[in-house]
User: Fold these one by one.
Assistant:
Number 1:
Amino acid sequence: MKKYGFLLLLTICASTFSFAQVKAPSQQFWDLLATHCGKAYEGKLVSPESDPRFAGRLVMHVRSCEDGRLRIPFFVGEDLSRTWVLTMDEQQLIQLKHDHRHADGSEDAVTQYGGKATNTGSVSTQFFPADAFTAGLLPAAVGNVWWITVDETSFTYNLRRLGSATLFSVRFDLTKPIDTPPAPWGWVD
């Protein structure tokens, strides 16, 4: 009996150890993205192929990496108003918010919209369906689903509005860092 009890204890300890070593897909996604802290990259509009609202140089900068929060400014030409804010909660679920500012640093009337992942996603992809705050702020965006993909070579930010033809996708080449851009509107260095 002692032999079987020892084997059971050994089995429980071994399985606990192996589970403790495995990171959730969301944590692996986060860790990969965090390897780009401080770096900036140029991107291109994938879909639609052209949009006058996104004319100009497209740049993302993984500017701020704090415990549980990543802030990634997204610049369109001289427009420094947008920052993607990712936060991770205790259940390792990631939330995406869009922080929009005016040139004087004040918040835009349409800001802090986004959504939270409903599961830990995958190592390369995280989905963010529109949350209740977004539905109240932008009723037409109630069907929005944002997703971000990241791997060793690219970062892609995407938006699909369910029930419509709306699709927005911009891809950044992570193999070619560029010079660090200025701070986004509203940031104090």
Note: The longest strand covers residues 167-178.
Number 2:
Amino acid sequence: MTCDSTIGVIDYGGGNIRSLLKALETLGASPQLVTSPAQMENLDLVFFPGQGAFGDCMEKLERLGLVESLVAWIKADKPFFGICVGYQLLFERSEESPGVKGLSVFEGKVTRFPGTKLKVPHMGWNNALLRDASAAPWTDLGHGPYFYYVHSYFPSPADPSLVAAETEYGVTFAGAIQRGRLIATQFHPEKSQKAGMTLIANFLSAHA
């Protein structure tokens, strides 16, 4: 496929950038790294990959002046795809970084997996039970596609209608959310082979 949209990838110095850039380029896109608010003005879509601690990531976003621009982008219902910590930061706070305020686009907190016999971080392949496998951008994935996860924390949205997919690992958690033209996933689609590439391609096609 080819993609004529202008795509920005938020780069605050800690995200999993390389894998996502490669995935987008494989799909015919020419993504641009975004490190300042001015760079967001002419974009059509924004991807926000995340890696690292909740508090550190918020500090880097604030230092780059990207917090206000990201919140404004999402509130305007412009196409947005958050990944891993780029998903968690959409919420108000995290147990990982007490006292640090997230982007607070949605009500809810990010919690750590409770103590169980299962290893934490949750790392590897797991399925995501989709609420509506016929809704964009989840089409052609089946009802329980497998994706790749690496995380110790997960969001607990206050609004259950946000949840687009649930994943089970000791507990059932929101593996993905969706609202308007926003989706965000705890899993890494850019590392999830065919299923992940299908999801990214569907998202690009929906907002081409």
Note: The chain is about 25% helix and 30% strand.
